[in-house]
Queue: 2 jobs
Job 1
Amino acid sequence: MSEQLTFTDVEANICTIAGMIEEDKLYFVQMAGAPLMAVLLAKYMSAPGVGYVVEEGAVAPSPSFPLPRMMVGASRSHYRAVGWYGMNIVDSHAALGFMDYGLLACLQIDKFGNFNSTFIGGTYEQPERRFGGAGGATEIASQCWRTLLMTKLQSRKFVNKVDFVSSPGYLDGTPGARERAGLPANTGPYKVITQEAVFDFHEETHQMRLIAMMPWVTEEEVLSKMEFEPLIADKVERMTLPTEEQLTIIRTEIDPGGLTVSRGEWFTIDRDTDKRVT
Amino acid sequence: MSEQLTFTDVEANICTIAGMIEEDKLYFVQMAGAPLMAVLLAKYMSAPGVGYVVEEGAVAPSPSFPLPRMMVGASRSHYRAVGWYGMNIVDSHAALGFMDYGLLACLQIDKFGNFNSTFIGGTYEQPERRFGGAGGATEIASQCWRTLLMTKLQSRKFVNKVDFVSSPGYLDGTPGARERAGLPANTGPYKVITQEAVFDFHEETHQMRLIAMMPWVTEEEVLSKMEFEPLIADKVERMTLPTEEQLTIIRTEIDPGGLTVSRGEWFTIDRDTDKRVT
Amino acid sequence: MDVLASGIGEFRKPDPDGYREYVRTHKERRLVSKVMSEHDAISRFVEDGDYLAYDQNVAVRGPTSLFREIIRQRKKDLWIAAKFTWSDASLLVAGGCVSKIDVGWMATGRLINEAIRKGELKLIDWTNGALAYRHLAGSLGVSFLPMRYLVGTDTFTQSGAKVIEDPFTSQPICLVPALYPDVAIIHVQQCDIYGDARVLGAGVAPMEIAMSSKKLIISTEEIIDHEAIRRQPQRTTIPYYFVDAVVVAPFGCYPGSTPGLYGADIEHWMQFGAAEMQGKTDEYLENWVFSVASHEEMLDKRVGAAKLLKLRQAETVREGYYE
Amino acid sequence: MDVLASGIGEFRKPDPDGYREYVRTHKERRLVSKVMSEHDAISRFVEDGDYLAYDQNVAVRGPTSLFREIIRQRKKDLWIAAKFTWSDASLLVAGGCVSKIDVGWMATGRLINEAIRKGELKLIDWTNGALAYRHLAGSLGVSFLPMRYLVGTDTFTQSGAKVIEDPFTSQPICLVPALYPDVAIIHVQQCDIYGDARVLGAGVAPMEIAMSSKKLIISTEEIIDHEAIRRQPQRTTIPYYFVDAVVVAPFGCYPGSTPGLYGADIEHWMQFGAAEMQGKTDEYLENWVFSVASHEEMLDKRVGAAKLLKLRQAETVREGYYE
């Protein structure tokens, strides 16, 4: 029997995003959970000098690992920052154009990258399931130059129409739609990262476009997990699998309690063939 | 020969204002010079607990005496404040209505308490003498509940029309003029203090009104030192002379260099008669 | 005024002059002790129907001892701002205290969903940043502030924001109305008896909330000497004249954490979560709120010294806070 | 947009998106050393025609070593914001560097009056607070802010402010345009090599100016270790990514004072005042600026060790700054 690699969808997302982190850029990272873990994994492994801010005003922290289980705003997550401010200050840093990338999770997304974190089903007044709200995602997705969005590849998440536009993507997709609405120029969603596929947005039509897939999935499989049909890049790249080292660091240093990464769908991959076993 | 008391016009102003300081009120005090000295004299002698803020953001300092010669923003003038902030913060405290009194000096004033600290003579573009500008006086005179204005009783200062309205009094004097302009409700100049006379403003007409004079001057003398004719209160009070103790504290603790208080007009008063000798 | 678009959300009309009048007649300018019990602070300064603001980083440095006292006193019909919060909104909803929530982010579950369904609770959506910014507007004494986001979304539509044509750039710009809460509760590490308060560490908007709220209750881990405040003026987050009450509350944000002092009691949160899922929050409240007379009694009889020591030990960082 | 009134003063049209584009392409995000000489900092980052901002409390903590370097390099046509300043504007006018001044408050005398008379200098009146607030607007990334004063005055008329009908209260409200300076110079007590800077003590608007200026030069009394910054993050006034140059300048605001370190040299100010009154500022500049190659040389050859020691001794307060 050949060697196998086992990980969750969240772990896959964290590893994929960690591989995208550039050390000479600044990141505005949502609260906690997978987006923060992705930047921390990069900081631990490949981009130790990367700077990021969090909503509650810690600028460029150097968190002490292993991280605490409830880490938002806690001392170990703000450890050795270069500055401790408040939300209005760091939101202003983003308004001023200092934040190259926003890093966010979302519940539902449409083909123009508009996304929902408010409610699913029913009406605004009587929702079937009410969620936490836009949080800091709207200011991040509006004011950072590029936004990296993380979610799961499922048809109920990639939908024709989101139940509620909590935060803006390219709105109706027309050229200049964000600027006409009053948003800062030349901003918008940049990539959407899932456990099995990565998307970007077409430069002119602003439609979501499949650009990379995990080795074990086909285009058809990806499309079957989406309500709308994305554009397909001329050449769809193969995504890199999480490494043993990445997974070990996530499980021992980044989320030792497993509160975030142990939930969701598990993947077991045969390392010789890169095919999914279970 | 009877005993004599000698002081300058600035010293007289400082002592008169010091006597008005209420310990349960908050003061917003201009930069430096006589207004600040007045509140410090009160703090030294009669109202040790009185709180005041200065433009550069020191809140409720307890300055260490004797004060330095160039004291604005210097360490001894901010000593043992309860907070060190910046200008936008303390201006906001005033905007929020926390500052009961503003304490200011001015170059020129009209009968509605509009005053000038910008230029005298000529035009705005080609002034005869250009002065420092509105400074912080406009925010103080607009946002504190009541403004105490300090100047010298001279016809070139109490004028029919100021060369430039740097900061607002009651504007054209009509009811609600300040509110119509956009200023916070129920604010405005409260008293004008000079070396020989004190004025307030009529509740309805908002015209300046003589309410107190030094013992050695007559109404005619006061009016001869004003270009416009103020209202006269039914009963014009007699002002209290500076005391020896006040003058000693000013000269040794408040302005030991004499930069502010030794300039201007000198008064020598016969203490038996309260008449001016020279 | 050309208003290009307006959200439909309900909001308190900002009234800077009304706030000023309140301040003029109600706020104490002298240095007088404001130390009082949590009971007195909540009963004197929180009224049914008040707009209540608070500050915390999700579960960190939240004024939870005061939340419990609000529930204990069965305050009603509060309108709260839940920005970057945790299960506080659910807790207050469980206590029957809340009828409206301005939402930035909060943990949601059965309690919130059921209260909406029954028509007992109305949510008005904003974002974390928009609510913090509305407090900033209030702290500046104005009625609105312009900002570069919120537009283009349904969040905007459900909020009370407006879009106007910017008179300086001619571009569309979003305006949010200032938030002037009736009362705010803020937990801090250190405070003197007059209310000069220090928030140690990053915080969402403690100063903005303190400045924009008519009434302000501070709960503090410890009282420090007034002279200590004056020796380090730059560390004072909130000066005394904004503060109406100072409540001594060690472990005041239990089961949350206070940076530099103690960690969070995660088991407690799970217990609350389980109670919520099982519809047993009445039991939870009986145990943690109603059956104890005070925060002190809760710590003594429900939490216990061993747990408190463990939580102290779980906080390993003092650097930047106390060092 | 119903604009009820507009000032006639010239102002740079606020361009938040232009600022953002500059930041995107020009500002360094990495932690790299920005330490350089005053010569290099001024020659690289101050251009003729720039809008130059700075921060000080009248004569306290002003970046005077950098003012002298600007004169030494004969920069021209600067537009400066003189809010709550001292004779800096006169000094720069004497050096022929300035063509426009946004006035809050500054010391005026023969130099300013003559330059106006000759048509070489244009003043545009605001107030200290209005200029600090315009920096605040810039620091928030917006194009204007509403405020409760300036209206009703000739200062308003000569400024670039506007009055609109407030869309939330229907009352008239004053709007001031955001100020985004091309370059700012700020003197601090402590800074690391990356630009993480600490202003110790009260300051007019150092953070707002730092955030709203495209280019930022910090002069610092001393370089401190980056790890020292990280050990006390709450003391950092300006984080590294706003900063383009760090200039080591002990006694950098001589003849002004730096709180906690040294007092002001009042005799020097009087010497400048006398030179101005006698029309001898060329001699003054030759002696204090042109005949010395650097701030260091000026301290050594013109001020001297004895005077520096005396100024150190004159500063008796360290509490709140270094203790």
Job 2
Amino acid sequence: MKPIARVNDFVVKFANVNGSGSASANGLFAKAVLKMGVPVAARNIFPSNIQGLPTWYEVRIVEAGWRGRRGGVDLMVAMNPETWDEDVLEIEPGGYLFYDSTKPLPPSRFRDDVTVVAMPLMEICNAAYSDPRQRQLFKNIIYLGALAGLLAIDPAVIEALLIEQYKGKAPLVESNRKAFRLGFDYAAANFAAIGLRIERRDNVGNRIFVDGNNAAALGAVYGGATLCAWYPITPSSSLAEAFAVHCQKYRVDPATGRHRFAIVQAEDELASIGMVIGGAWNGARSFTATAGPGISLMQEFIGLAYFAEIPAVLFDVQRGSPSTGMPTKTQQADLLICAYASHGDTKHVLLFPEDPKECFEMGAQAFDLADRLQTPVFVMMDLDIGMQDWLCEPFTWDDSRGLDRGKVMTAEALEAGKEFGRYLDADGDGIPFRTYPGTHPKRGAYFTRGTSKDRYARYTEDGNAYVDNMQRLLRKFETAKGLLPEPVIRTAAQSTRAGAVWFGSTGAAMAESLVALAHAGIHLDQMRIRAFPFADAVLEFIADHDHVFVVEQNRDAQLRMMLVNECGIDPGKLIPILHYDGNPLTERFVTREIAEKARLFNVTPLRKVAR
Amino acid sequence: MKPIARVNDFVVKFANVNGSGSASANGLFAKAVLKMGVPVAARNIFPSNIQGLPTWYEVRIVEAGWRGRRGGVDLMVAMNPETWDEDVLEIEPGGYLFYDSTKPLPPSRFRDDVTVVAMPLMEICNAAYSDPRQRQLFKNIIYLGALAGLLAIDPAVIEALLIEQYKGKAPLVESNRKAFRLGFDYAAANFAAIGLRIERRDNVGNRIFVDGNNAAALGAVYGGATLCAWYPITPSSSLAEAFAVHCQKYRVDPATGRHRFAIVQAEDELASIGMVIGGAWNGARSFTATAGPGISLMQEFIGLAYFAEIPAVLFDVQRGSPSTGMPTKTQQADLLICAYASHGDTKHVLLFPEDPKECFEMGAQAFDLADRLQTPVFVMMDLDIGMQDWLCEPFTWDDSRGLDRGKVMTAEALEAGKEFGRYLDADGDGIPFRTYPGTHPKRGAYFTRGTSKDRYARYTEDGNAYVDNMQRLLRKFETAKGLLPEPVIRTAAQSTRAGAVWFGSTGAAMAESLVALAHAGIHLDQMRIRAFPFADAVLEFIADHDHVFVVEQNRDAQLRMMLVNECGIDPGKLIPILHYDGNPLTERFVTREIAEKARLFNVTPLRKVAR
Amino acid sequence: MTYLTKPKLHHPGLPKNALGLTRRDYEGAVSTLCAGCGHDSISAAIIQAFFELAIAPHRVAKLSGIGCSSKTPTYFLGAGHGFNSVHGRMPSVVTGAALANRDLIYLGVSGDGDSASIGLGQFAHVMRRGVNMTYIVENNGVYGLTKGQFSATADKGSKAKRGAVNREEPIDLVQLALVLGATFVARGFSGDKGQLVPLIKAAVEHKGVAFIDVVSPCVAFNNHPGSTKSYDYVRAHNEAVNRLDFMPMRQPITADVPQGGVENVVLHDGGIVRLRKLHAEYDPHDKVGALAYLEAHRAQGEVVTGLLYVEDDPTDLHDAQNTVAVPLNTLSDAELIPGSTALDAFNAALA
Amino acid sequence: MTYLTKPKLHHPGLPKNALGLTRRDYEGAVSTLCAGCGHDSISAAIIQAFFELAIAPHRVAKLSGIGCSSKTPTYFLGAGHGFNSVHGRMPSVVTGAALANRDLIYLGVSGDGDSASIGLGQFAHVMRRGVNMTYIVENNGVYGLTKGQFSATADKGSKAKRGAVNREEPIDLVQLALVLGATFVARGFSGDKGQLVPLIKAAVEHKGVAFIDVVSPCVAFNNHPGSTKSYDYVRAHNEAVNRLDFMPMRQPITADVPQGGVENVVLHDGGIVRLRKLHAEYDPHDKVGALAYLEAHRAQGEVVTGLLYVEDDPTDLHDAQNTVAVPLNTLSDAELIPGSTALDAFNAALA
Ligand SMILES: Cc1ncc(C[n+]2csc(CCOP(=O)(O)OP(=O)(O)O)c2C)c(N)n1
Ligand SMILES: Cc1ncc(C[n+]2csc(CCOP(=O)(O)OP(=O)(O)O)c2C)c(N)n1
Ligand code: SF4
Ligand code: SF4
Ligand SMILES: [Mg+2]
Ligand SMILES: [Mg+2]
């Protein structure tokens, strides 16, 4: 079995125990590769637990810049005895195994098609450090050093990162550099070169390495949000926590030191959405961040916001479901409950960011849309975008852009005698005017309620007034189609009657997979959906194709359902490609699945897919 | 304008103020017609308020036995000055207006195409009674007497009803009889006969006049329910309250006077569904009754019950929505939120009773299904079936029928060493075995959780174990199709390529409408859906037709969505017929709508619809 | 139940307040509650209190949950915005609203079912957060709007109209509010306007959350003999610990100087509540004492009313949040959007 | 985190209880909590208590919400059924379960976030309903499982690991339970097993709801100086009002006879709790006194522990419901189904 030989295109996976401090060392590894000018796609795979359980960090070194997982592992850094066997098993034939050889293991625990890189880590640690905590921590830095040596990462790059990380704390920098050197020198002295190598490139450019929760939180700041009400839940907590950090930086009145924002950690999700609705009703841009269980608890309030027409922004960072499910795994399975949230006839606006950059952009845009449409807006993220660092184009902002507050009737307008009916379709677009509470001494006051009302917000149980209002809400939803982000459509190199549709984090694997498929002779036109309700372009794209693969990360093909329902499409032409085991999609999986189905539906004359 | 002349086939509508005691008098009127052997279809139209607002009671006298509303009013009993104008307006040309002429009204307040029956009610009352409360109450009995005279209702019938109503309270019977006579004699002495008349028939037979909440509650008793946990909400409250009454009658241990049931009025809907889940987990048949807002609040718990596979029965008595909506109006708009309740990938079992009789039957069957399928079961009622009295065939029960507890592993089986895996698909039908807590000292104990687990209920975050479990849940859902009530299918007199599909209370108007449509040359095969997931027969029926009208009482065509999603049907052939103003459907509405659409889709060669 | 506003014929004779407004300007739509419902008396007291305080009606935000009680905000201060939210969740909606605009006055109206049953969690947390609001529970011991089921404040052993007996421990929202750190806690009776109006005025002027539990008989379902929330029962067992007059005086004066059973409580804005003690030993600054007093009298079936506890210089949620002095909903784009330069720095840090 | 049961090698030497079971038979899966987590000590105390009470493990139903604390039922009484429900809603699930089968013993385990934040409403209502259960809150003042945000029991002014300061009033679940009518209220400390084990034993034997608030430090996020829920702080401020021994004696004896600071509290089944008073004046039968005592010491930052309140003959939910003596889940079809004759009568009445 020939050992794998690849430059700047392989997968390294770290197997650790959580709470052992490995995270920062592994993070340094990824950053170091980036500093070498080589893109990475990194995924943190962690348990729903605080300390002592298996955790993995997968770093794909990928010169080509793909941002999704490939599948398979070329170099396993096996630091967790508990998962040793499964970790060894996961290595590609011809791959490599780096491990701590202090305690000898029987040959039976190894594979003969895998090259072993043995290092007596613990021994080295114990020799160098007496304090057990130091041994524990520096062990990680030492293997980082060894890997740097093994893969030819420039040590200067990592030393620079250490200086940056421990800014000002010279002793810390020093001790870490020492540990790093320990490993690096050991590798130089003891390891034979292997087939995997990292070479300097300039393929990263000014791209930034950031997670979607951080980006979305910044988007909320730029979107003018002043109230965040939330309740902790993985994987959304770091969004609210990042908002707090950004606000401390950008939203403190320099003169007084007082806050231009309010953040309430509510007692639960019913309270957080209630606060958001209260704040939005009162003219402050308000949002919450949550995950599936929170969305379930918010159902009643979301229906109120729909029917009373309150702008409210919800970030749903989706996780493994149903119920408590797999809290630290990723999925796209909350589409239905968000699109049709609450009892009765309701439809809601959803946005689908594909990466942290769009989390920032849509995170800001969501507030304009909510105010403009006077309805809840859901930003549908997932754990994969929300909690993982992605390599993105730098964020941009047009300083000429202001906040669109939508149709708000002012005291002046009221004074001037402009007609005001809270639920009056003044412009025929289904969107009425609203007033902020306290606007005018005599005019513009109204009662907001979840019960049915007439155009002037007066309570009524009259069937005709009810229907009139419900139909206006449908008109408003039509109007939304024209205001939401358009789908991104790309036509295949070769003309085809088949297409692929996806949304959100799925795009990372799709981009790469479509190229692989094209190589295999499967040419697909492409549409990435960015919002619900669907723009007419979505309907047209599907109408223009005989077979459309709908790729999503849930069991029940939820996007497909919505396409069929809202666009009146014959489900027969929509071929579901589903991945829902909770792990981020791999290019290999999508390519294999589509290729197979393509064969079934003989979408195109086929050559075998190279794998 | 010729006055309407009809025998045993006309609509009388009473316009009153709520809390004025008119309800019992109006109820007596309907019962009296039934005692005359003539079927009635009665609808109580009431506001979300306790006292002082307009309320109506519509009694359709219908020898043919139709149970839905016809539309239009032939005789208006206008007792509410506040709604006088709209009430007068609603009368059919050639119809009749009965009113209190004590205070004279200007001619402008009347219609010349309507025959007036004037009676100085208040004057008569004031002459006969001094106590204002008596005046208030007996006024209703007096007009009842007058109507009896006017419409030729046998006074003996009503006097018998009075005796029955005030069993044992002779003075009450007497005073009421006196008041009744007062009105009856006045009519005899002063009214000219009108074109509307009631004649004795024998068309009622042994049918019973009962509301669906009462019937469903009795069903729960027969279904072996021992725990009811609920929170008051219109229109479901009377279901739980009826359960209490039935239990007092059927479930008190004669020896000790102690209860073979428990009923908890919980602090809210989250608690009530939580109690139901706790009880069901522990082997006691448990249910809750609620309406839309409650269903919204229960979403998280319903997802837990789905994923942890806990039998739980929910009666959703649907009302006007979204949000608080129209609490005292009827709708069928909770289908989606129940069918796909909770975040993540979930699908739930729904039953659709068409009338109180099926509320009883499905109310009992739901518990067997929940235990057999180990999943939540929703009985989808609505205000129209739940709170209105319907004329139904008497309920029946086969004494040889026992309760099907489903797959419960006993201490004996465990002792005998039978393999137990809580989530193990032992029989290939997707349904695992469960044990009741405390069954065996050493075997069969397991941990119930909303997080993902393996076949032996052990916590795991392994993607394959998760997918394995989620796919078994899909198999279980497939199994359900074979256990649920089949659709009721009837083929049209004349062969046709078109069909009509409906569910629940819509059937009352449909039955009559289909006859009218047939007269107009529109022949439709008919399918009444009784459960979700849909039986194969449902798919076949739709496949066999080019056009299928889907009639439902919501805005967004929710049943149609589910048909398209679950059966992979081309939405193009499903023509939505939607009614959602909150009032019970009328035969006239459905007939007109279908006829129009039939013309559009030229479903059949058409004659004009007779009206 | 359509929205009827009363004809506002302006009798020049009507007394005017400091704003030149008459009592009529503080009214709302015609009530659709049952004749004799305690809630209507409370609405009248609210109208009176705001009229006397000379607060512009449109600067008041009226929020409620669901129930007969929660309908009442339609029946007063018609010129103010109202929000009839969802059952039991008014506190969270007020919390958000209050954070969005600190300049309005927030009045939350709820029922015992709305606050003690479904809403207990939010009731508790709004108390501890000290949202600057007046929180009135119109307490009748039943669910009026759903036709008379027991609520969580129904006394154990009390009889329902149809005869059922309540078997659960009642929740005393006043004791709960005290334990949860509310800084103004009072109880009133819809039948005693003289006591209620000044309580409401003081509550409105109080900084932080001011809670008033108002016993308010339901004539339709809970006013029969055997009900401890009936007019007769409360009149017979009303144990008022003090009477108060409210004086919106602005200059501070030496407070807490008991003078012949009279005590002045200074509110944060200098307004003064003059307490005439009816029970010499009762001290509205002593939380422990209040709890003990309530528990003891509750055991005797007595309804303790009056200003039961008040903290002298309370802080509110805006203090805790350290928010700017202007309402958050008035901040300009410039104050809200960091702009492209800041963004470039952000990018640089992550490149 | 797969379910690992420890190898049960049966040392003949291990002490056996009345059922002939060893302590090992009361253990569960290996804990996956952080080394040193207070919750693990509480699990150990639970194991010890049930072993000493000689209760068959499979007759115990263990229910919880969501959180590190709520994970612990997997770590004890492995032979009993467990239910890890949803966040904050364990009380309702226990209520339903307890009604379904009155013969099992119900142990609810929760956290401060689970019970004082999201679950406060259900916590309150289970207390007033008197469900026959032992309710343990493993109170660490933070949300452990979500990485250390403040919970509603975090003391005002206490510092988070990352430095943030809590600005909200803390909720004292013990005071709340008292006000809500709980009939057995205690507080323990995970670091004091000697006090905790007998408290748990007494709680299990108590009829109705028995609540124990156990301060249980979170070593990962809330054990630093500045935290009032740290081991050091609680050790330094632990104010035990009494110590108790539990004697599962069955024959009734004359109770409430204080004898040299020792008091015997007889439980409904004749079991006895022997209280050694550490504070002569503290009377665990005096609710008002307890409230006052707690409020006063809380103000001084002290953590009052011990059996704080117990009612002598409490009733429970089954009494209120007047349910039959056998579990509802064992009733036969004949006892449940009225049958066709009854149905004919029903029809006749409506015809
Ligand atoms: C989620 C939800 N559950 C139940 C209801 C039904 N409901 C309306 S009002 C009410 C109780 C009102 O009682 P209370 O708050 O005491 O007000 P009251 O009518 O007595 O003044 C209930 C249960 C609802 N509207 N929403
Ligand atoms: C509805 C819902 N919201 C949020 C969460 C996330 N969550 C899991 S545990 C937890 C808090 C646990 O805190 P606590 O009850 O104090 O337990 P501890 O971990 O501190 O022992 C939260 C908020 C959830 N699981 N469900
Ligand atoms: S039902 Fe009771 S609470 Fe409701 S309006 Fe009537 S009297 Fe008032
Ligand atoms: S995080 Fe805290 S509560 Fe959770 S296991 Fe660790 S120490 Fe215990
Ligand atoms: Mg009430
Ligand atoms: Mg905690």
